[in-house]
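Chapter review: from sequence to fold.
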Amino acid sequence: MEAFIYILFSVLDGLAIFIFAFNSFRIRLIEYWKEILFTVSVISVGTYLFSESAILKNISPLITIILFIVALIFYFRISLLSALRVTIVGFVAQIALTLVVTSIFCLVANMSFNEVKETTFMRYILQFSGDFITILVSALLKRKRIWVTNLPYSYTFKFKISRTNLVLIFTSIIVTVFISNIGIFNNIFISAVLWLLIAINISLFEVRKEMRQEYD
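The token string follows.
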């Protein structure tokens, strides 16, 4: 039962990431719901198996990101850079919003983050709340028609060397390191602010890329 609950909430995380990322790039979710559900289910099962291993547990976030990128390239035939962009946008948004929800709860309930982590039921409630807020924000942005549309339509794996793409690669590496060490900051409020800043900067980067009509 514990394994089922873990995988179920992991699937919810994956769906929230996919929904936010796809809506941000104006990709029609309804056309790929089978692929999305299959991908998040496989990754969720893998995440649970990784959590049972002391060695793989530490690199589980990194492996998850790689699997997301591979799935995007395989299913949608987009370039590696485009897959990186979609993945990072989804992951950062979900992490930032979940941390904000957790920070608000800790503040209101006058509890420390460690106390929350020690309570399994509370962890799942906050995890679900973070996913719900991520999907809600995504829906609101979509309703306001706030998205970018500069993913290449002529799908290619050729890498174009440009300053923007080099910045994207560097940013992706930094974000991946942070995700792999998500507990690097013990203070939940500092973590929330940090991830919000990362999310805002990535959004500004995408807007700038859109305004310049730059494609990967």
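Two observations follow directly from the output. Residues 153-161 have pLDDT under 50 and may be disordered. The helical segments are 2-24, 33-51, 60-76, 80-109, 113-118, 120-143, 163-180, 188-211.
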